[in-house]
């Protein structure tokens, strides 16, 4: 972004914010549920930590908020800035317009690229429309993009990209080396893969996958292609790994695990799967506390709670308040890691804020640890 003032283009389009409404539900009383419960004794909550916002998500959300403060609405964002319904609805109410492609953005307007990253073709399309852009791609995703370019252009490798075909992050990574990349959705696809040279292969992965399933896919790939090379460092995001490790510790003790996170959030969906795989008798995913079905409590003396890496802590606290209404005790936090990672804001917004006279604009998120992942 080359602008030197916070002034927006002369023509600003009006817009209407239409957040997704939450539908109230009529609940059965705590007394009714208690009469059906098949156990006696204290009802417990095991609260996984770390949980919730990671540094990359926090950075992206803060970048959009700062852009709104600096330029005023509307601010356009390609795709969802992060995969969370509450975050998207909240930003929509503030004046953000989410679009699918750059062609939907009026020429000369401000466009933010989401935390999941984009391909060079998307950036070129934005440039052709004279859009001012802020790149809020998570730095850990950018690392994978750089690896894709390096291994294909300099080392002449073919990439086996482990990830979900159609996910924004996978589309962005694939777009950095489309002629030299094969997407592998999971271990079940390994036998069908065709490669130009089995001795010049390297695997990369989407950052939000199940650690266990990714390693299973790598193992099967290596059985078929023994000379498959590993990336120089693990592509699975630290936050994804940490949240999965925490729920693995909670799950064996839980009759029910509630994962707070949206259906299109890969890491939230994986948390539900991991909870089941590691012993939870039941696991459910919800966006909001009002989606929790109190009938789940009938056989649940111990409930585990966690949230995906794009989920603000306020949504978890709403679930905990609901559980308290049904007689569950103070949450017992199960801590498996400490997190203290903060990424810098995107360079475009840092420059604009500095030119506008703002101090202390380098940080792109709020410092956190495992006990306060908000």
Automatic annotation (TrEMBL):
Keywords: 4Fe-4S, Iron, Iron-sulfur, Isoprene biosynthesis, Metal-binding, Oxidoreductase. Its EC number is 1.17.7.4. Pathway: Isoprenoid biosynthesis; isopentenyl diphosphate biosynthesis via DXP pathway; isopentenyl diphosphate from 1-deoxy-D-xylulose 5-phosphate: step 6/6; Isoprenoid biosynthesis; dimethylallyl diphosphate biosynthesis; dimethylallyl diphosphate from (2E)-4-hydroxy-3-methylbutenyl diphosphate: step 1/1. The active site is at residue 169. (2E)-4-hydroxy-3-methylbut-2-enyl diphosphate binds at residues 83, 116, 167, 207, 265-267, 310. Residues 1-35 are annotated as: Disordered. [4Fe-4S] cluster binds at residues 54, 138, 237. The keyword Protein transport does not apply. GO terms for biological process: dimethylallyl diphosphate biosynthetic process; isopentenyl diphosphate biosynthetic process, methylerythritol 4-phosphate pathway; terpenoid biosynthetic process. Dimethylallyl diphosphate binds at residues 83, 116, 167, 265-267, 310. GO terms for molecular function: 4 iron, 4 sulfur cluster binding; 4-hydroxy-3-methylbut-2-enyl diphosphate reductase activity; metal ion binding. Isopentenyl diphosphate binds at residues 83, 116, 167, 265-267, 310. Its cofactor is [4Fe-4S] cluster. It comes from the Bacteria. Binds 1 [4Fe-4S] cluster per subunit. HAMAP family: IspH. Catalyzes the conversion of 1-hydroxy-2-methyl-2-(E)-butenyl 4-diphosphate (HMBPP) into a mixture of isopentenyl diphosphate (IPP) and dimethylallyl diphosphate (DMAPP). Acts in the terminal step of the DOXP/MEP pathway for isoprenoid precursor biosynthesis. This is 4-hydroxy-3-methylbut-2-enyl diphosphate reductase. It comes from Nesterenkonia sedimenti.
